[in-house]
Design a protein that fits this description.
Layout lengths: L1 H16 L5 E8 L8 E8 L12 E6 L6 E6 L12 H26 L3 H7 L10 H40 L3 H4 L2 H26 L7 H12 L4 H10 L1 H21 L11 H28 L4
Keywords: Membrane, Transmembrane, Transmembrane helix
Length: 307
């Protein structure tokens, strides 16, 4: 009986071996104790086709089964890592270009909003490089400079808080006058004064109240990076938000002065006939200014890691 089994199995082994490029025949003899016959276990293991886009490393690892005396041969290989096609990088480049364009537009808006007053802060409060022999000395020098710079900026923030605190009630009082409320230009200037005074009062009060949070290492690193790369959009944004109280005070004083000059040259008991375009233009200007100011306040709070 075993000889017949071997005789029938030899042609089968030959024909199965012809499929070697696609499948690899594996046959194992399993002899169980007490059984006079020897059984042949057949199965095939598919040989994976090598690919040029993956780094294949196939190896045969024998595994001993505990429930029987047979040995299982199986292919084990690490998970292939697909390579990124060169054409797939176009989306990443487009995202980077859009982010860079948005940063440039925001930097231009910061420049127009401050009218270059951030340059005063950048020139006066920037980090000064000093030659030190050790990294500990450089760290101590940077920390000492930042603390000293922060004290000097706090004095300007206090000045902005006092000035904006005076201009805010003044602008609200001017709105109670009939000559101001009935004239579109004068009313727009007065509301502008109130908006800038409120922004300066809120930003300066927040900076002074949380000035201990500005002494951390994160703000010090941002200050050093903004001082070394003054032409980048991040540097312009950083100095713009530090100069936000002083910028708001400057704009509030300018709009308040324009309001007073307009009232001085306005004829009393005069009849003003203003077109609808003046009302629409004044409303659009006030709405846009309010939105831009709120965005600057939000970005300043986010930059200083308070949100």
């Amino acid at each position: 009986m075993p000889s017949r089994l071997y005789a029938f199995s030899l042609p089968l082994i030959f024909f199965r071996s012809l499929e070697w490029p696609v499948r690899k025949p594996v046959f194992l003899f399993n002899h169980c104790p007490g059984n006079p016959y020897t059984s042949i276990h057949w199965w095939t293991c598919r040989v994976p086709t090598p690919r040029t886009t993956f780094d294949s490393d196939f190896s045969l690892t024998p595994t001993l089964r505990r429930d029987s005396a047979s040995i299982d041969l199986s292919y084990s290989h690490p998970q292939p890592t697909p390579r990124v096609h060169p054409f797939d990088q176009g989306g990443t480049n487009r995202v980077k270009s859009k982010a860079g364009f948005t940063s440039c537009i925001w930097a231009v808006l910061c420049l127009l909003y401050t009218l270059g007053t951030y340059r005063f802060f950048s020139a006066k409060f920037r980090f000064r490089e000093r030659s030190q022999s050790s990294s500990a000395a450089i760290f101590d020098s940077t920390y000492a400079q930042w603390i000293k710079t922060l004290r000097r900026m706090c004095s300007l923030w206090r000045l902005a808080r006092v000035g904006c605190g005076l201009l805010l009630p003044l602008s609200i009082a001017l709105l109670q006058l009939s000559d101001v409320s009935q004239t579109v230009f004068v009313r727009t200037c007065t509301i502008t004064t109130a908006i800038f005074a409120a922004a300066g009062l809120l930003s300066s009060g927040s900076y002074l109240f949380l000035r201990s949070e500005l002494k951390n290492q994160g703000m010090r690193i941002k200050w050093v990076e903004a001082s070394r790369h003054s032409a980048t959009a991040e540097s312009i944004e950083f100095w713009t938000f530090l100069a936000l109280p002083l910028t708001s005070l400057f704009w509030a004083i300018s709009s308040c002065a324009l309001t007073i000059v307009s009232l001085a040259w306005t004829k009393q008991n005069g009849i003003f006939v203003e077109s609808d375009n003046a009302y629409i233009g004044g409303g659009i200007f006030i709405s846009a200014l309010t939105a831009i100011t709120l965005v600057h306040l939000y970005k300043a709070a986010k930059l200083l890691e308070w949100l």
